Amino acid sequence: MTGVAPLWTTARPHPGTWQHGGVTATHSTLFPQVPESADAVLDGLDPEQREVATALHGPVCVLAGAGTGKTRAITHRIAYGVRAGILQPASVLAVTFTNRAAGEMRGRLRQLGAGGVQARTFHSAALRQLQYFWPKAVGGELPRLIDRKAQLVADAAARCRVRLDRTELRDVTSEIEWAKVTQTVPGDYSAAVAKAQRDAPRATAETGQIYAMYEQLKREREVLDFEDVLLLTVGILQDRHDIAEQVRGQYQHFVVDEYQDVSPLQQRLLDLWTGDRDSLCVVGDASQTIYSFTGATPDYLLDFRTRHPDATVVKLVRDYRSTPQVVHLANGILALASGRAADHRLELVSQRDPGPEPVYTEYGDEPTEAEGTARHIRDLIASGVPAGEIAVLYRVNAQSEIYEQALADAGVPYQLRGAERFFDRQEVREAGAALRSAARFGGNDPLLDDVVDLPSQVRAVLSTKGWTTEPPAGSGAVRDRWESLAALVRLAEDLARARPDAALADLVAELDERAAAQHAPTVQGVTLASLHAAKGLEWDAVFLVGLTEGTLPITYARTDEQIEEERRLLYVGVTRARHHLSLSWWLSRSPGGRPNRQPSRFLKGLRPGSGGPAARAAHSGGAVQRRPAGARPRRARGPVRCRVCGTTLTVAGEMKLMRCEDCPSEMDEGLYERLLEWRTRQARRLGQPDFCVFTEKTLIAIAETVPSTDGELAAIPGVGVRKLNRFGADVLAMCAGRQLADDEGED
């Protein structure tokens, strides 16, 4: 980047926390010491993370649950390989899905002594290759890349004599993006929507017509969009064997983060990058697939072992982020999930000390929910929780306005995630220019005559731009400006603690690197964000609001797959919380309206008063329902191990069997058949589906272990106290070979 102006326009807010030493650490460790050796890179990793870090040959698949330190594991893997001389930094390409994530990865690798490794988004990596090879493959200069396609889509619609309002324009633009990442041409759009059972926002024929005109306008104006970057790179690598070999000669080792989010187009590009080599490490969690509307699919993650039979597979389930209470709820949300992703879910095991139970609150209407949430947040801040460690998460962006107003009325500072980027803010640009000037000419600036240390110098410079020792009262633009400048002051303080000899020039260099890496310092205000925008972030306290039927799941989620994605969205929201978690819903949209709305179906059996074991374990305390004082916190569930080989089990089906799927079975076939027949009779008598008695996996586990006592039967996952009391005598009798009295004669 030598000779290039500072990139003050590329960074997004950073969560300010990350996994460090196996536990969640705050931004006080922004500048850790570089490990002295390759072996030192492995210090502090848990056994599974260490297994990831040392698996440097052949295909590797890391199934990593929320909060389990996946980024830590893969960055230490790369750094260990580089520091041990096994991997050449320039030969490694790590790809992920957001500039923020790529920037964080580059920052961590730099801190680990592996700064020469390329960590980029798919689009960024493809664009570099496209710019380099375009003159050779096509000739001339690469066409201009447009930042936003909305205006071009609007022009295409006008050419087709279709008028689109702002919402319709956004919907059609999203449809065009989906079509391109799924490699669907305009003429095939309608058929592709039908095949995918996609709920198109408008007539597919009309959208297909606008899509075709959009592509025509791009050709006329000689411009490209972001999807074209991937499509054209794929085209060049497919058609030009020499160029493909040149890329493969440069990059020989690939790491893909958030692999559950790859689209067919991105997977095609990855296949062309790797060629016939297998030096590939992928990391993902099917239970966090929440972007299918963009073309993302977990199928490539779930099929990895099929495509790479000799792959090393490592599961990360030790949750360092959240308390056992939060983890218990997260596991409970997925326990009732269905579909392919649910079959491969990971059951998290919290590594933290117990914390408060999640709080469930029902409100009469949405404004009251917003006001109540703001009050609770104000109380949390008063108790010592920093505002920057609190988030309010909702299903759709339109919900933010009412929470912005409520927080402002309560005098609580906030920041809107997805709004203006940190380094785009006017006050940050002005502060950057002032700091740069002071770094160059500070010796002649009387403002700095009486200050020596870096933080004092920064405070002195920024005091001319509006920073004060005390924040301004209230909220609004003045407070937002102060918070931005205060974030720069805190960054200077962190740098000075880590490097006492750091000067202003070092801070300016750090800011330049952060801007280029999409790594903004933490702004101290409550975060307002959609559940989709919250992916990859974490806070001490999370408020999940608007958990009402029709909002979550959203009204237009109709198919089983769409409903399950909404469930995963709630799971992602829950797993953002480290310590405090609040879940709330309203019964009426407006004050005085009919209270006919219901809490989200995903909370049934989990929230107090909704039935099920989780609900019976909770207690009500008025509108807010929480564990009563003096009650013992729920213990974190320990790991379940295969009774054949001893491996820790994390897949739900394997945990029910109490063995790995591929470990040998010693099932009593006759007993299993008798259990199946008995289950059918019981289900008919109770008027319930068969699985409500016991699932097939549970019956297999019973037929394999053949329990002889209540304790042995209760130890089998899927039995539990209620089913033990109800069916235990019959099951133990069958296991003992005794004939049951035929008292179900209602066949």
Shape: globular
Supply the number of helical segments: 29
State the secondary-structure class: alpha/beta
Low-confidence stretches: 1-29, 613-638, 743-747
Into which percent range does the helicity of residues fall? 40-55%
Q: Which band does the percent of strand residues land in?
A: 5-15%
| Chain-averaged pLDDT | 81
Number of strand elements: 21
N-end to C-end Cα span = 78 Å
- Biggest sheet record: 7 strands, mixed
Write out the strand line-up for the largest beta sheet, numbering strands in chain order.
Answer: 15-16-14-17-18-13-19
Q: Evaluate the radius of gyration.
A: 28 Å
In summary, what is this structure?
With 747 residues, the protein is an alpha/beta fold. It has 29 helices and 21 strands. The N terminus and C terminus are likely disordered.
Description:
The structure is a single chain. By secondary structure, this protein is of the alpha/beta class. The protein is 44% helix and 12% strand. The chain contains 29 helices and 21 strands. The strands form 6 sheets. It has a 7-stranded mixed beta sheet with strand order 15-16-14-17-18-13-19, sandwiched between helices. Helix 4 (99-111) links the parallel strand 4 and strand 5 (118-121). Helix 6 packs across helix 9 and helix 17 (366-382) crosses helix 18. The longest helix is centred in the middle third of the chain and has 22 residues, at 477-498. It is globular, with a radius of gyration of 28 Å. The N and C termini lie far apart (78 Å). Mean pLDDT is 81; it is low at 1-29, 613-638 and 743-747.
